[in-house]
Amino acid sequence: MKKLLLSVENVVLLGMGLYMILLVRGDDYALFLNPKFRWLTLSAGAGLAVLALVSLFRRTDGIDFSRTAAFVVMGGLFFLSGTDFSGKESADPFNLAEEELGEGSHVDRDGLLYLKLNTATLYYLLLEKPEEIMDVPVVLRGVLKKTPLLDARGRSALLRVNMVCCIADAMAMGVMVTGDESANIGDGRWVRVYGKMKALEDPVRIRERITVDGIPSTVIHENAVLVADALEPTGRPRFPYLYVLPGDDRFDY
Hints:
alpha+beta, 253 residues, CATH 2.40.50.140, single chain, 5-stranded mixed barrel
């Protein structure tokens, strides 16, 4: 019995270690933690695997059912946390392929160059250096969210989740957007927006609860609105969240 319980504990430890190692190798890692922590997760997974192998040779003087039960429960929660029971084949419910805009910091549309930005960068620019971004042609992509308050003003919210460390500190950040096309696009769609930021003489105080991908924390800039030249549906990006990674330009737009 002692050997059986010890084997169960070792299997759980080894399974968690291998799971962490495999998670680091896939894109799904970015849905849990900032990719810059891959090395840390890999180290922890390798450490658990080594502990499991070393513990095969340790001796035990007694039977501790509660400890083994704790291992099993912890392992079960560990694996269930990364399991999707929704049955969806794609994270994009509208099944649109992601469309890339090519390399470079700008996009040429109808003879006008649009600066590629993400919603978090735009939000901080509006807070810290609004004079540098007002009336500048920009192109962004994000989730279009609608609320009764914004609908009444002919606006929507353009949001994207920004993650500093892990899913626990994730926050959807973005701006208000207005344009004729938004009325024909449903709530929760991924869209690409070309336009310019305009200051509001009468800022909007948004107190409605807005969630993106189940993330409850949301901040929307209330003193300006993105006036869309064009607003079109697009696919969910391969990396839907935003991160700060030195030398990695995948999240600049």
